[in-house]
Amino acid sequence: NMTDEELFRRAEPYREQFDMSNQKHVIHVFAIAREVTFRLLGKFQYDVQVLGALACLDRNMIQMSTGSGKTITLILPAVAFGLTRKGVHILTVNDYLSKRDWEETRPVYEWFGLSNAYTSNDFDDAVQRQAFDCDITYCSNSTLGFAYLNSALASDIGRDVKIIARPLHAAIIDEADEILMDDARNPLIIANAKDLGAELTTLEYKDKKLSVQWIVDELKSLRNMG
Hints:
The longest helix has 19 residues, at 23-41. The protein has helices at residues 4-16, 23-41, 47-57, 70-73, 75-83, 95-111, 125-132, 141-153, 176-182, 196-199, 212-223; strands at 88-92, 116-118, 136-140, 170-173, 202-205, 208-211. The strands form 2 sheets. A 4-stranded parallel beta sheet has the order 2-3-1-4, sandwiched between helices. By secondary structure, it is of the alpha/beta class.
């Protein structure tokens, strides 16, 4: 029965400080998010979807049949994790589904004042970093995987951007069986654009050009001494 303005004010304390371990906080945020979903998207989470969202917060794997509304179910835990301001990644199996789900749900996140974005491997590194710095980030599992590997290799100096600049906190996985089992069989491989083997055959030291192989052989002989 609240007006839009009253509902907005009711959410204000949780925008400033939200404790996910506080059951009362979770109940209030879920209730507000459910009502906001209805007012902005024209649909709301049914009891079974609220139960699925609660199970998600407890880091459980839940099974929902096709067409049962997983997209709006995930709004509730996404808002809760987002309000911690530590970041949450909503992972799907491909870019099309990820972008579609984000475009559908983003009005709710923006109502709560949560920064949110969709990102892909096709985007520029700086754009991806902005997305991964958001409270809520939608992407495919491969996008997150490659972003993590690239960030581990990057120096974060100049254009060598660390795409993920902060610790990973939480992920909500759609199609968990496919991502954690089927896709997990295919390794993520990063290859350098240059063949460094041809460049690292020699090095200069005190105006002398030395063979890398000679240095390796010398080190081997020293290891065998004594």
